[in-house]
Amino acid sequence: MAKNQQNTLEKIVSLAKRRGFIFQSSEIYSGLNGCWDYGPLGVELLRNLKDAWWKAMTYREDIEGLDASILMHPRVWEASGHVENFTDPMVDCKQCRSRYRLDVLYEGFNEKRRKKIADAYAEYLAAGNGDAEAFKAQEREKQMEIAGDALADQAPVFEAMNEKQLLVCASCGGTGTFTVPRKFNLMFKTFVGPVEDNSAVVFLRPETAQGIFVNFQNVAQSTRQKLPFGIAQIGKAFRNEINTKNFLFRTREFEQMEMQFFVRPGSDEDWYRQWRDIRMQWYLDLGMNPEKVRLTDHPEDKLAHYAKEAVDVEYLFPFGWGEIEGIHNRTDYDLGRHQEYSGKSMEYFDQEQDARYVPYVVETSAGASRSLMAFLVDAYDEEELEKETRTVLRFHPKLAPFKAAILPLVNRDGMDDIGLKLYRDLQKSFKVFYDDSGSVGRRYRRQDEAGTPYCITVDSQTLEDQTVTVRDRDSMEQERVAMDALKGYLLEKLAD
Ligand code: GAP
């Protein structure tokens, strides 16, 4: 990461702590890696983000909501393929005991070292260990990628690179000191009941999606929904990531906002395209900078085992582009597998077509915590004013933790009483903040840093005509609004 980008991320993490958005988990005990706590402003931001998603996804006639349990029958994870496939290749440095996800270690190498690895792999193939000609036929970039994948997939290749000292430990600089990659399952294990044996093992769910699949028939029957229809869920997911990194980007406990849309086979590709566009628009409608959000298709040879087509919504974080949401055409893979493993029918009777079939699924899977980080980074701005730099979080009003702050200009002449009354009235409809300490300029700055879109000031004119000033966070312009029109004013702004 470039130094100025690193600085930006550090500034955001520091602001997030100072203003009560995000705290390190168990900080007084030196923290727990990969876990974060949402402070008073963070929890509001997260709730607003989840509310915006919930409204967009379930306030429509063809999507139902669900809240499934985190612990599920262990067979669920066999059927879903997680017991077998939800693994990352892990290596340890024997010298300093640092532990890495191999692909992350490889990603950290510069182009020169990757070329060396690709050359060594070509040599290895030329010595009779595989199809050297096919490898040579690939472009240079693809060769480097294949060599990287081979490290994880083929232990002898890995050992050959280790011997040539091409693998470098990012922590101690040791070369050729790594253990052979092992498959590490990312699911957290625990036990149900008092006996901790194999028959009592359960997993903390690594995704919310499976809770939706196993409830497909329950929801279809109880709501009498006809295909196409979707089921949406927001909830915690847990992954024992080998390397957590970049603040909220890769954590061990996080929240997902997932929707599975069940469709007639044959209409899946069309629905996949529709959902891709709807989901991209959602980020733009919430004010995300269009130059920093993009869609990236998964190439066919990189598709997950369950997917026919897949695209990521990516955001340009200070450390580069990163996925914030995945949209997958999952075909009938999941319902088919649950039908096979549970012995219960997952078929749907299509009256129109007089046919019975297992529906296809288009999934939209967003990280609530990861998109919160994207919105936080996107909102962060430093604006040069005449005498100072103003730090401001330019959240969309729907996402902003506080919708308005009420600030009496001075604590006398009844301005504070009017301010408090206004605060209590507005509080019935909005999350608002009251602040009467310090100069009004400093109070504005505090609200800019919290991302509050409107500051309402009670001044001497209020005493005469019951109007207040409303200052816009972004333009810093002020207008006078009658106090009894404020609720309507804010409602209108929040509807945008
Ligand atoms: N049901 C499909 C699924 O879970 P995924 O790409 O593994 O797909 C979906 O995860 C989203 O969940 C990602 O786009 C990301 O926003 C979020 N996510 C996944 N792993 C995460 C982690 N370790 N920390 C934070 N967010 C994560």
Bound molecules: glycyl-adenosine-5'-phosphate
- Structural class determined from secondary elements: alpha+beta
What is the CATH topology descriptor of the largest domain? BirA Bifunctional Protein, domain 2
**Separation, N- and C-terminal Cα atoms:** 36 Å
Total DSSP E strands: 23
- Domains (count): 3
The CATH C-level name of the largest domain is Alpha Beta
The strand order across the widest sheet is: 3-9-10-16-13-12-11
Describe the protein's architecture and organization.
39% of the residues lie in helices and 25% in strands. It has 496 residues and is of the alpha+beta class. Helix 8 packs across helix 9 (155-163). The longest helix has 19 residues, at 40-58. The model has no long low-confidence stretch (mean pLDDT 94). Bound molecules: glycyl-adenosine-5'-phosphate (GAP).
What order do the helices and strands come in, and which of them pair?
Blueprint: H1 3-18, E1 22-24, E2 36-38, H2 40-58, E3 63-66, H3 74-79, H4 82-85, E4 87-92, E5 99-101, H5 102-107, H6 111-129, H7 132-136, H8 140-153, H9 155-163, E6 182-185, E7 189-191, E8 201-203, H10 209-214, H11 216-223, E9 229-238, E10 253-263, H12 268-285, E11 293-297, E12 309-317, E13 320-331, H13 333-342, E14 348-350, E15 355-357, E16 360-367, H14 368-379, E17 380-384, E18 389-393, E19 404-408, H15 415-427, E20 432-434, H16 440-450, E21 454-458, H17 460-465, E22 467-472, E23 478-482, H18 486-495
Parallel strand pairs: 3-9, 19-20, 19-21
Antiparallel strand pairs: 1-2, 4-5, 4-6, 7-8, 9-10, 10-16, 11-12, 12-13, 13-16, 14-15, 17-18, 21-22, 22-23
